[in-house]
Amino acid sequence: MSMITERPAASATATTPVVEAGAATAARRDVGSVVRAYVALTKPRIVELLLVTTVPAMMLADRGLPSLWLMAVVLVGGSLAAGAANALNCYIDRDIDQLMRRTKRRPLPTHTVAPRSALVFGLALAVVSTALMAVFTNWLATALTLAAIAYYDLVYTLWLKRTTPQNTFWGGACGAAPVLIGWAAVTGSLAPAAWALFAVVFFWQMPHFYALAIKYKVDYARANIPMLPVVASVRRVNAEILLFSWLTVLSSLAAWPLVGSIYGLTALVLGVLFLREAHRLCRRAVRGEPMQPMRLFHWSTTYLTILFAAVALDALV
């Protein structure tokens, strides 16, 4: 009898660590999934693209390498500010995100994060980012940071995105704002070169996002979002893609005297390639062939990255 009673005890003792280990693993998995969900709210890929323009703008403003401390502050503050704007965007757009194939796996449609939690998270990031910029940069950079968050969420997301097919154009100032913020953080002012680079990013957003909207036209229509490819003819969409592609390239060339020769030659070569891809997309549409808009979308990202890398190189040289 004593042996019989001892065996279950030994079994329980052997099983307990296994159960505890499983529970610990599950807890870690749950914590990890929650952390990933909150990171997803910030849309890190968009944040990365914004920072691609910020650092070169700071280097050009300084005509060299700014203080590493200042760069770190602006990078962290800018990342938190962009993350705040994106998290608040997810909160505001939670009703339409669940209708779109592209966005239905975001944390709010999948109920990984509660709407109230996303709102608090976004506001907290906004406060921290603004405080960082206020303490360690200057009033102009801080004001631009706060204005960019407010404009993106209150003007673009709440109003423009849902009411006008020109939402991409009027919302473009938000995506180009990091150039001005980076410049202002270094100099406390805004020079013509800063506005020239701002114009490049501003005009670049139209062909970049129109290509995405072509790809997800059905999604936007289902969510009743009047993106240009949803409400306008293919001819009209093509015309705007070509118009803003040319304006992007012309703006980049106009900045040549303000930046330097390395940048200028890079802008010229990249501009030819960018225009070739934009015209290629539009020709395919005219011929009734599959448009393959994501080719232009991905190439435009490469274009902007290399162009601003040339800005940074010219500033160092």
Describe this structure as you would to a colleague.
- This protein has 15 helices and no strands.
- It is an all-alpha fold.
- It has a single domain, classed as Orthogonal Bundle (Farnesyl Diphosphate Synthase), CATH 1.10.600.
- α3 runs parallel beside α6 and α12 (about 235-255) packs antiparallel against α14.
- The longest helix has about 40 residues, at about 1-40.
- It starts with a helix and ends with a helix.
- Residues about 1-10 have low confidence and may be disordered.
Give the distance, in angstroms, between the N- and C-terminal Cα atoms: 87 Å
Number of helices: 15
Number of structurally distinct domains? 1
Number of strands: 0
Largest sheet data: none
CATH architecture label name:
Orthogonal Bundle
What is the molecular shape?
flat
**Mean pLDDT score:** 90
Oligomer: single chain
CATH topology: Farnesyl Diphosphate Synthase
The helix fraction, in percent, is: over 70%
Q: How large, in whole angstroms, is the Cα Rg?
A: 24 Å
Question: Could you list the spans in which at least 5 consecutive residues all have pLDDT below 50?
Answer: 1-12
Report the top-level CATH class: Mainly Alpha
Q: What is the percentage of strand-forming residues?
A: under 5%
